Amino acid sequence: MEEFFPEPILFLNTPFEMNRILLIRMLVVVVLAVIFWVATRNLKVVPTKGQVVFETITGFVRNNIIIETLGEKDGRRFMPVLFTIFFLTLGLNITGVIPGLQIASTGLIGQALIMALVAYFTFIYAGMRRHGFRFFKNQTVLPGVPIFIVPVIAILEALSTFIIRPVTLTLRLTMNMVAGHMLLVLCFLATNFFFVTVLVEQGNPLGLLGVGTFAFGIAFTALEIFVAALQAFVFTILTAIYIQLALADEH
């Protein structure tokens, strides 16, 4: 767990102190900016293999997450923020399996919380822009509910919409990344122990158990790549759904 809280290495004792996690975040942002710039600066009618891959990924996010959830008009309107959420989440997640980096900075609750707050204020903005202050009534007062239980339902709906949503967005992303990191650490530390300590230093053939832990480590690495993409998808589509609910005329 100490890897999630490294010591500062740049600009020590200043308001701009930077540790390894912050440097990885900056690296992800730069890499994403370069990828999008290179991929879009010379688009061709007959696409290259790289352009096909890029358009397949971005097309999936655009069509299957954004447009399918929000429709063409509202989807195009909120596409920049949803694209940013998806690819930034994916980039920050995937660093957990990249050699030399090997940490998903979304495993720190602060990063996930900031992204959840962006989603939170985006769907509130969408609702306020569409409905004004009636948005809060739409989100908390269910039609057809008996009048004597309206206050109770309104409180529960307010908690669900304005408190639980950002909390669950934050915790889901953070906990998945922490769990994945711990599984990988466990497998590869066990591999190192069996091969180096047991097999090499002690000459004990039980050290061959390291083959199994190494295989599990590779399998969990593949699983972590899948989880990294899945969590980016889940975070983005939930944000899109919250925006869609905020835009709806009724709860």
From TrEMBL:
Location, primary (coarse class): membrane
GO cellular component term, pick one: plasma membrane
Protein name: ATP synthase subunit a
Organism, scientific name: Pseudolysinimonas yzui
SUPFAM superfamilies tied to this protein: F1F0 ATP synthase subunit A
Chain's role: Key component of the proton channel; it plays a direct role in the translocation of protons across the membrane.
Compartments it resides in: Cell membrane; Membrane
Gene3D superfamilies in alphabetical order: ATP synthase, F0 complex, subunit A (1.20.120.220)
UniProt xrefs under InterPro entries: ATP_synth_F0_asu, ATP_synth_F0_asu_bact/mt, F0_ATP_A_sf
Domain of life: Bacteria
Cross-referenced Pfam families: ATP-synt_A
Residue spans crossing the bilayer: 20-39, 81-102, 108-128, 140-164, 176-199, 206-223, 229-248
Assigned keywords, A-Z: ATP synthesis, Cell membrane, CF(0), Hydrogen ion transport, Ion transport, Membrane, Transmembrane, Transmembrane helix, Transport
Membrane topology label: Multi-pass membrane protein
Family: Belongs to the ATPase A chain family.
Gene Ontology MF annotations: proton-transporting ATP synthase activity, rotational mechanism
